[in-house]
Specification:
Shape: globular
Radius of gyration: 24 Å
Number of strands: 23
Strand order of the largest sheet: 8-9-14-15-16-17-18-23
CATH superfamily of the largest domain: Glycosidases
Strand content: 25-35%
Helix content: 25-40%
Largest sheet: 8 strands, parallel, barrel
Structural class: alpha/beta
Number of domains: 2
C-alpha cells in the first residue's frame, strides 16, 4: 500500500512539473485576450543555429505590428536583432530571450521577420513567436521616482525638465526614526556649508513643486541608522512599529502636516522572520487608519518578500502603491535586472499571489551592478553616451564602496530599449505604474534620458534609433 501511495505521489509530482512548464511562460490574459496574435497563421522557415545565424518567421500575409514575443528553448542567446522582411536596418535589438521576451518597437508592416543572433552561449533554438499591434496610450499610469533630498534641494533647470515626466516623487535620505519612534533629521554639507535636514527637506519640496506642480510628493522614513542603541536595523523597526507605534505615527503625521507632504513611504527591505513581516503589516494597517483622507501610504518591497513565506496579498492592502524592488536580483550569469527575471516573472508571481495589480509599481533601475556582485552601483548618466540604444552591459573599471579598485568587469544596466520594453509591458499588463531608483542616476540629455523613454512608452510613441 505504501509503495502504491508513493507511486501516486510521484505521478502527481511529475504531472505538476509538466503542467507548470507547459504554461509557465504564457503571455498574460490582459494582453492575449485583448489583442489578436497576428503570428497565429505563420511558421518558422528556420528556427535554430549558432552565432551569426538567423531565425526566419513567415507570417503568411502582410501584418502591421509593433510588438513581438519571442520564446527560446533554453537561454543561450545573449544578443540579437530583429529585421523586417529583407530590411538591413534592425527595428529592434536586445540581449537575452530565454523563456519570454517582450520586444516593443515602432509600428511596422511585415510579411516576415528575421531574428539575427549576434552572440550566444552555444547552439540556440526559438520555439515560438507572437506578434501584436498595441497602440494604446496609458491614460492612468504612475511614474514614481525616488529622489535624494539633497538632489532635490539643488535641483537644476536641466533636471527640472526630466522631472516633468514624474507623477510622484519620493524624497529620501534626510529622515530616520529610532527605536522609540522619534524622528531624526540628518545634516548636509552643501557647497561647503552645513545645512539642516529640515531646511533641505523644505527646499527640496519647494523645488519639486515648482518643477512639477501636478506631481505628488511623499517622503521615506526608515530606522536603518545606528543611534548607538545596540540594536540591529530590524530590531529598531520592530520596536518603533510595535511598542512605540503610537509615537511613531504621531511624529509622521506632524511631518506630513508641517511640510505639506502628500504622504509617507517605507523603503522596507529588512524583514527576516515571520514576526518581522507581521509587525510591519500590522503597523501599516494602523498608520493607514490614522492618515488624513487623501494622504498616501506606500512602500518599496523586495521581490523576495512576496514569495511563499513573505507578505500575503491581504497584508499589502493598506498600501496605496506597492513598489516592487525588481532589481539586484542576480541571475545565473550575474545580471541583476534582466527582462525575464525582474519584469515578466516578477509580475507573474505578484498576480498569482492575488495582489491588487493596479497598485503595483514595477521597479526600474537607473544604475548598474557588476556581474560578480561587488558593492558598486554605477549611474546610467555616466555611461549614457557610451551604452548603445539596445545595450544593457558594459565592461568597465570601478571603485567599490570600500574603496577597492576593480579591473574591467561586466556591469549590467537597463538601457533605453530595456526601460521602454519594461514600461510598455507594465502598461499592456494593466499594472499601476513604474518605480525608479533613482532620479539622480538619469542623464539630462533628453535624447538619452531613461525618463524620456518611459514618457514615450506611456504616450505610445517610439523614439529609439
Amino acid at each position: 500500500m505504501k509503495k502504491i501511495f508513493c507511486a501516486i505521489i510521484l505521478v502527481v509530482l511529475i504531472f505538476s512539473v509538466f503542467a507548470f512548464s507547459g504554461c509557465s511562460d504564457k503571455t498574460p490574459d490582459a494582453i492575449s485576450s485583448k489583442y489578436e496574435n497576428l503570428a497565429d497563421d505563420g511558421k518558422f522557415l528556420s528556427d535554430s543555429g549558432e552565432k551569426g545565424d538567423e531565425a526566419v518567421f513567415d507570417f503568411g500575409r502582410t501584418v502591421l505590428i509593433n510588438t513581438i514575443v519571442l520564446k527560446e528553448k533554453d537561454s543561450n542567446i545573449t544578443s540579437f536583432r530583429i529585421y523586417v522582411n529583407d530590411g538591413e536596418t534592425p527595428v529592434y535589438g536586445n540581449d537575452y530571450i530565454g523563456g519570454y521576451r517582450y520586444c516593443a518597437f515602432a509600428p511596422t508592416e511585415a510579411s516576415k521577420i528575421r531574428v539575427e543572433v549576434m552572440d550566444c552561449d552555444g547552439k540556440w533554438k526559438l520555439e515560438e513567436v507572437e506578434a501584436y499591434l498595441i497602440l494604446n496610450k496609458a491614460e492612468s499610469f504612475d511614474v514614481m521616482s525616488y529622489i535624494n533630498a539633497d538632489t532635490a534641494y539643488t535641483l537644476t533647470q536641466e533636471q527640472a525638465e526630466i522631472a516633468s515626466c514624474v507623477t510622484q516623487f519620493n524624497v529620501f535620505g534626510c529622515t530616520y526614526f529610532d527605536a522609540e519612534g522619534e524622528i531624526h533629521f540628518v545634516e548636509y554639507t552643501i557647497d561647503g556649508k552645513t545645512v539642516s535636514g529640515q531646511e533641505v527637506l523644505k527646499k527640496a519640496i519647494e523645488n519639486l513643486r515648482k518643477a512639477n506642480p501636478a506631481a505628488t510628493i511623499v517622503f521615506t522614513v526608515l530606522a536603518n541608522r545606528d543611534f548607538g542603541d545596540g540594536m540591529t536595523t530590524i530590531e529598531r523597526h520592530n520596536s518603533a512599529m510595535n511598542d512605540h507605534a503610537t509615537v511613531l505615527t504621531e511624529n509622521l503625521l506632524k511631518i506630513i502636516d508641517e511640510y505639506g507632504l502628500d504622504g509617507v513611504s517605507f523603503d522596507y527591505e529588512y524583514p527576516e522572520k515571520s514576526k518581522d513581516f507581521k509587525t510591519f503589516s500590522n503597523y501599516i494597517k494602523q498608520l493607514d487608519a490614522a492618515l488624513p483622507e487623501g494622504k498616501l501610504l506606500t512602500a518599496a518591497i523586495s521581490d523576495w518578500c512576496i514569495r511563499t513565506f513573505g507578505y500575503s496579498a491581504k497584508d499589502l492592502e493598506p498600501l496605496d502603491s506597492i513598489e516592487i524592488m525588481s532589481y539586484d536580483l542576480f541571475d545565473e550569469r550575474g545580471n541583476h535586472a534582466t527582462f525575464y527575471n525582474t519584469c515578466y516573472k516578477t509580475l507573474k508571481d505578484l498576480d498569482k499571489k492575488g495582489v491588487d495589480m493596479s497598485k503595483v509599481h514595477l521597479g526600474l533601475p537607473f544604475y548598474s551592478r557588476p556581474v560578480d556582485k561587488s558593492a558598486f552601483w554605477g549611474s546610467y548618466k555616466d555611461v549614457a553616451g557610451i551604452l548603445g540604444p539596445y545595450d544593457n552591459a558594459l565592461t568597465e573599471e570601478f571603485v567599490d564602496l570600500d574603496g577597492v579598485k576593480h579591473a574591467p568587469t561586466k556591469t549590467y544596466y537597463n538601457g533605453r530599449q530595456m526601460i521602454y520594453d519594461k514600461t510598455r509591458y507594465a502598461i499592456d499588463c494593466g499594472i499601476g505604474g513604474v518605480m525608479i531608483w533613482h532620479f539622480g542616476c538619469d542623464t539630462t540629455d533628453l535624447e538619452m534620458s531613461l525618463f524620456k523613454q518611459i514618457e514615450a512608452a506611456i504616450n505610445g510613441e517610439y523614439t529609439i534609433s
